[in-house]
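Hi everyone, sorry if this is the wrong subforum. Our group has a chain we'd like a structural model of before ordering constructs, and none of us has done structure prediction before. Sequence below.
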Amino acid sequence: MFTENPQGRGDFIILCDHASNKMPPEYDGLGLSEEDLASHIAWDPGALPVSRMLSEQLDAPLVWADVSRLVIDCNRDPEAEDLIVTASEDRPVPGNRDLPPEERQARLAHIHAPYHGAIESLIEQRLAAGLGCALVAVHSFTPVYRGQARPWQIGILFDSYRVLADRLIDALRKDVALTVGVNEPYSPADRVYYTLSRHGEQRGLPAVMIEIRNDEIAEDAGQKKWAERLAVIFQDAAGAGDLGRQA
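Answer:
Right subforum, don't worry. Here is the predicted structure as tokens:
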């Protein structure tokens, strides 16, 4: 887990659950090939650079997980069946088979819990200081999933708090070249909203998840373009007083 720009004074906190495909040496790659570990099953390619640019442009703290989601998925409930997967898109993950309960608990204690503890601590500090705590989770998704092409360049995911999501959707749809997913390619019903539910919805804080198709942010130019486009929308939302804060 890493926290960058913790003293940021902007209204947002940027989160990147699947920032890294890092595989600690003790896991021996979980029995996967280098090609598998470089692919989207291990992480969200492009999400961390976009998150860092948003952090800079919005003067926002950034918290990101530095271990592959194949070791443990920080965006899943600790009780979820897919917290530690034994297969991803039909690719077996041998190192996660027949996992002893103590190993599951060790991964929770050493990776999952510190990540969420860092987010909780940051929120508490900012609320005490009267700073904004609108949460933005940045993810990326693959253009083709199980043989099905995904038409959206970007998806905006939200649950009960939708002011930020509506701001993003309305602004992005002004570009007729964009196909904007609304709770697509995932939604909270797919159990992919754990981090924002835990730290945003349950606290009454604004929250939104951004899913960018990873071919859009495979290179520096695309990452910069999307970060700048999104930062303008978030700045407008903050300026309009649309964020809301915990009472």
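For your construct planning: Residues 101-128 form the longest helix (28 residues). The chain has six helices and eleven strands.
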